[in-house]
Every structure is written in C-alpha cells, then in structure tokens.
Design brief:
elongated; 5 helices; 182 residues; 65% helix; mainly alpha
Length: 182
C-alpha cells in the first residue's frame, strides 16, 4: 500500500526534477563568455539524477523484487546531491531582488550591480583593467529569475526525496523488512 502512496510523490519529483534540469541547462547554455559555473552544471546533473531515481521509484512501486534498501539508498543519494546543490546555489545566489537598481559603477549602467556581478546570472564576465565587464547583451532580470526559480525547485525536489525516504522505511516496517522490535 505504501508503494502506491508514493506514486503521487514520485510524480511531483519528476515534475520538479524536470524543471530543475530545464532551468539549469538553459542557464548553462546561455553562458556567453567562458564556462558555466560548476554549481549550475551540478544542478543540471541533479535534475537528471532526480528523474532517474523517480522513475526507478515508480518501477519499484509495481515490482516487488526491488528491495526497499535499493530505493532507500537511491533516495539517500539524491538527498545528498540535492542538499549540496540547493544550499550551495542559495549561498552563491545570495538573497537579492532581481529588479532593484544599483549604482552601476564599473559595470554597464542599465542593470544593477548584483545581477551583473553574480557568476550564475551574468552569463560570463571578463576582467578589463581590474574591473568586471559583461560581454554581449544579457537579460539579467530573466536569468536572475530563472536562477532563483531553479533554486526553489531544488528545495522542493529535496523535500520530496526526504518524504520518499521516510516512506521507504515506513513501508519496509510494514512488510517486515525493517528492524525487529524485540
């Protein structure tokens, strides 16, 4: 019964992980100068890993030969990667508005300092006379909102994986797969 109850949760995981994968890949592909930050690439990996774990979880709901500890291990692995990715992304992004206007010193005057100096959002900078410059035309507000949404969906997916891990153990106890209470 617990396996069937996990299906809606796995569906949410698929939706959240697909969004994470799409947003991270879009941010990475939109990099104009240099390589995308490693954390953006990690989160694209997290999206793909989450999709894989969720699809295996759906299969495990119907195939009894998949032991609970396999799903528990996969959910645990996803939790570790999602904690690392979501917390590091939140720290790297900081808490800022995507539309506030900064003073614009040493960077293009039209957008704010935060969006242009943040390596996840600015699509690549280069150093010119000791000052960061943005190359090309970048919609900073759009990239900022995408990065913030990406981080939010990382945390949503993380919550789903934590709930799935709890249900893995709850289901194992109900089937006698957990530890004895003697």
């Amino acid at each position: 019964m617990v396996h069937i109850l996990q299906l809606p949760l796995r569906g949410l995981q698929i939706a959240f992980c697909a969004i994470v994968l799409g947003l991270s890949a879009s941010l990475s592909k939109g990099q104009i100068f240099g390589n995308a930050p490693a954390i953006t690439n990690l989160n694209a990996f997290n999206g793909a890993l989450g999709l894989l774990v969720a699809f295996i979880g759906i299969a495990a709901a119907f195939v009894e030969s998949i032991p609970f500890f396999v799903m528990a291990a996969l959910d645990g692995l996803a939790i570790i990667f999602y904690i690392a990715g979501s917390v590091a992304y939140a720290v790297k992004l900081g808490v800022h508005s995507c539309t506030s206007n900064g003073d614009g010193n040493n960077i293009a005057e039209s957008a704010n300092r935060y969006t242009q100096s943040n390596s996840i959002i600015n699509a690549g900078t280069y150093d010119k006379d000791g000052r960061p410059y943005v190359r090309g035309t970048v919609n900073f507000e759009s990239r900022c909102r995408m990065a913030q949404a990406d981080d939010a969906f990382l945390f949503f997916a993380l919550a789903c994986f934590i709930a799935s891990l709890g249900m893995d153990f709850f289901g194992a106890r109900g089937r006698g797969g957990g530890r004895s209470r003697v």
